[in-house]
Amino acid sequence: MAEDPRQQQHFGKQKKYHTQIKHGILEKTLEASLSIANWLCKNNDSYIYMDLYAGMGIFGDGDTGSPLIALNLVNKFLQNNNVKFKNINFIFIDKDHKNIKSLEHQVAIFKSKNNHPKINIETKAGEWESFHDHIQNNISRDKWGFIFVDPFSTELKIQKLQKLKIGLKDIIVFINYSTLARQDGRKYETDVSRICAFLNISPEQYKNFDNDKFIELFKNSIIKNYSFFNKDFSTFAAIPVAVDGKLQSGDYFFLALLTSSLGVADAFLTEYAKIRSVSYPQTSLLADLSLEGHILQVISEHETISIYSLISSLYFNFISWKQTEEKELPIKNNIKNCLDTLSMLGKIKMSGPRDYFLKKENRKLLSTTFSNNQSMRDVVINKI
Ligand SMILES: C[S@@+](CC[C@H](N)C(=O)[O-])C[C@H]1O[C@@H](n2cnc3c(N)ncnc32)[C@H](O)[C@@H]1O
Asked: Is 127 near ligand 1, meaning CB less than 6 Å away?
């Protein structure tokens, strides 16, 4: 098989800036996913971690790739926690046999240092789509888990991912808008078919769309395709790109998070918020609204809405790191602060059968309201 020049570029030297950010977010989100699942699971349950585009396991400068990040994290987790899981299973897949060989070498080094009896690791060379049944059997066997989908550019055919019944597993998908926009500029038949496969649209739908609004076609198609997974908290967060050490102005790369756990979603956004430590004044292609503005907009679209549905609606959106200050992200604490302010200003009314989720004296929310799904469903909001 001819070597993909992107392999050289990607793994051949230092980790790129956006890869570092992607790995940081992956690590924190996986850590939350493991802890929450370990808390909720029964003693015989297992957890599965799947990396469908696993890569070589190591970069040229010795820095770790995503499979080793996950293994090291789980190893630490097993040592520091009261772990109920029977097993933590890993499946790493890469279509490139050379990458899998390199990864197997890294896994062997890991095992020689940390041979934990609860950890099982399997590697597979080939396109993940060709292992559909094997992947499905493993996902169905283990109730809890995490799936990392990290293609270089537009290799992912979302319909193939939709065929997997993923149950409670959390997912992160890397989405490369940059390549897609470049392909859109060219419009050769091969580019058209790649765009259509990636966005899951017909060539007619593509041709009928106004060229200047490709970002809209992209956003609409992504929202539609990812709604399919039926997760309560899904978001599409732009991550910054640097070329020769210089930050670029566009929103080129996104991380999609799909989860039904607010704790996992919170961990993702809390790590994401750290990107703001790099200040960058330029505007973005994505719409901007303050968190309070978003909350009021969603509430006014409903007669009454539970906190749970409100947060779910706030999530299903694209976020740009350039415009989104930490306090504007739909993290639990920020939502609580906004709702309390709106309630004090008399713009909304919060109530519920279980009033103990609201402080008696000023009807502010108690933090415990956010600690389980039922209490977030119990408190409802009306616009005044
Ligand atoms: C961006 S790299 C992965 C990087 C890795 N996840 C990390 O963070 O260290 C993408 C990888 O996907 C592999 N790949 C591309 N299409 C694939 C497919 N259909 N199935 C499995 N692997 C694929 C490529 O060989 C490449 O190694």
From this structure: yes
